[in-house]
Write a structure and sequence with these properties.
- With 419 residues, the chain is an alpha/beta fold.
- The chain folds into 3 domains: 6-162 and 316-336, 2-Layer Sandwich (Beta Polymerase, domain 2), CATH 3.30.460; 166-303, NAD(P)-binding Rossmann-like Domain (Rossmann fold, 3-Layer(aba) Sandwich); 339-416, no CATH class.
- It has 17 helices and 10 strands.
- Helix 2 crosses helix 3 (67-77).
- The longest helix is centred in the last third of the chain and has 25 residues, at 371-395.
- The termini are close together.
- The model is unreliable at 414-419 (pLDDT under 50).
């Protein structure tokens, strides 16, 4: 009989450690592409996988699928090529794949150590696959241990202390150029998840001359009302850029929001400005960086390693790794125990079948109104007898010989895979 093992898990992907932003954006997947990829996987016989696609990574984690199958899916449903993947991508199997998933979810593998957003993105990928019934029991159980490791890393260590987000790193990056943000004209384009957190960080650091722009003006006004900020229309983007000292762009657009034509007004009255692109695919056209009065920074240039909060989080890494080891070992124990689950189920069914047959034989011969009590008593006796065999099976879950012996003793043919 084929038993579930750690080796059944695989992961492939592109991330910030090896792939520059221009490569990562080609492999980036929007919501529609993720759905198409899941549907394509199902057609190919893969029925347990999920996808995480963020500004820093696009990774595919699967149960009982080969890395070559996953690579083919990713290059089919993204704009990335096979050559790009072989140059910049990675593929992991077994324990290394599982360990990577733990590190991603706890923020150990993030550009910003202890990233507070990444676990939400892992959950979104998992929940999308769960909705499509593409999560096996083994993968579901693993994910519960992964989420528990994340929760423990926040409760039992100080890894989550301090602002560990891309949005915070962006604001800190800007403050390396500007001593303070109090008198700077700031333009924030995009009021989605990252945009809202960026806005809050800017306000907390003293920014008051802050204007918000969003494709849907209502969303910008909703955020602006919370902090008493200005809102501008997308049509006025060139004028807003020209007036700004700092421009931050964080949208989910698949094409650049700020292109060379949006810089015409700024070119007529040039003044130095920093432009931060927090999006993948990039939302600021790379050609904009050619202007001599503009400093453009993308995701690859952000880091909070000089921040005191980072150094404190770094000290917690060994403790988080210990938590990961604990949860991995707990999962491995559960997975190994699944080897004897079919035998246990077959054994309990056999005992119950014997009990019911005997009860039915004597049912018409017993002149008593206490049949329910007899039924309950016999069930308790059978359960206690079965418990010893079940305990022995669990204690020897790594031995096929014990399961086979029990199966032969009680003629549990189905448990041995003989239908």
């Amino acid at each position: 009989m084929v038993h579930p093992t750690i080796q059944d898990f695989t992961i492939i992907g592109i991330n910030h450690w090896d792939a520059p932003v221009e490569v990562r954006e080609r492999f980036s997947l929007d919501a529609a592409s993720k759905l198409k990829m899941l549907e394509g996987a199902r057609r190919e016989g893969i029925d347990s996988m999920f996808v995480v696609s963020t500004c820093n990574r696009t990774e595919v984690f699967a149960h009982k699928a080969t890395t070559s199958e996953l690579i083919r899916l990713l290059t089919t449903y993204s704009n990335g090529s096979l050559d790009d993947f072989h140059e910049y991508g990675f593929e992991l199997e077994g324990q290394r794949a599982i360990n990577h998933l733990f590190k991603v979810a706890t923020g150990l593998d993030s550009q910003i150590l202890g990233d507070l957003q990444i676990v939400k993105q892992v959950k979104e990928g998992y929940e999308l696959s769960a909705e499509k019934e593409m999560i096996s029991g083994e993968l579901h159980r693993l994910i519960q241990h992964v989420f528990r490791a994340h929760k423990r890393s926040r409760n039992e260590t100080s890894l989550g202390h301090g602002a560990a987000t891309v949005a915070y790193a962006a604001v800190k990056f800007a403050m390396r150029t500007f001593d303070n943000l109090i008198n700077k004209n700031i333009l924030l384009v995009g009021t989605g998840k990252i945009g809202k957190v960026t806005c809050k960080n800017l306000v907390n650091l003293g920014a008051s001359k802050l204007t918000l722009v969003n494709r849907t003006r209502d969303r910008a006004e909703f955020v602006a009302d919370k902090f008493n900020l200005e809102v501008a229309d997308m049509e006025n983007l060139p004028e807003q850029i020209a007036d700004a000292d700092l421009v931050i762009v964080a949208t989910g657009a698949s094409e650049p929001i700020i292109r060379p034509e949006h810089m015409q007004v700024a070119m007529e009255r040039p003044k130095f400005k920093v432009m931060l692109d927090l999006s993948v695919p990039r939302n600021i056209d790379p050609k904009v960086a050619a202007l001599d009065f503009v400093d453009v920074a993308n995701m690859d240039m952000l880091s909070d390693v000089t921040d005191e909060a980072y150094k404190k989080r770094e000290e917690e890494v060994p403790l988080v790794k210990k938590i990961i080891d604990d949860e991995y070992n707990n999962y491995k124990l559960w997975l190994n125990e699944q080897r004897v689950v079919p035998t246990i189920k077959a054994l309990t069914q056999r005992f119950e079948s014997i009990r019911e047959d005997e009860l039915n034989f004597f049912k018409n011969k017993i002149e008593t109104n206490d049949f329910d009590k007899i039924d309950n008593m016999t069930r308790r006796i059978v359960n206690k007898i079965a418990a010893y065999s079940i305990e022995h099976l669990r204690d020897h879950h790594e031995s096929d010989e014990v399961a086979e012996m029990v199966a032969k003793m009680f003629k549990l043919e189905a448990a041995n895979g003989h239908e």
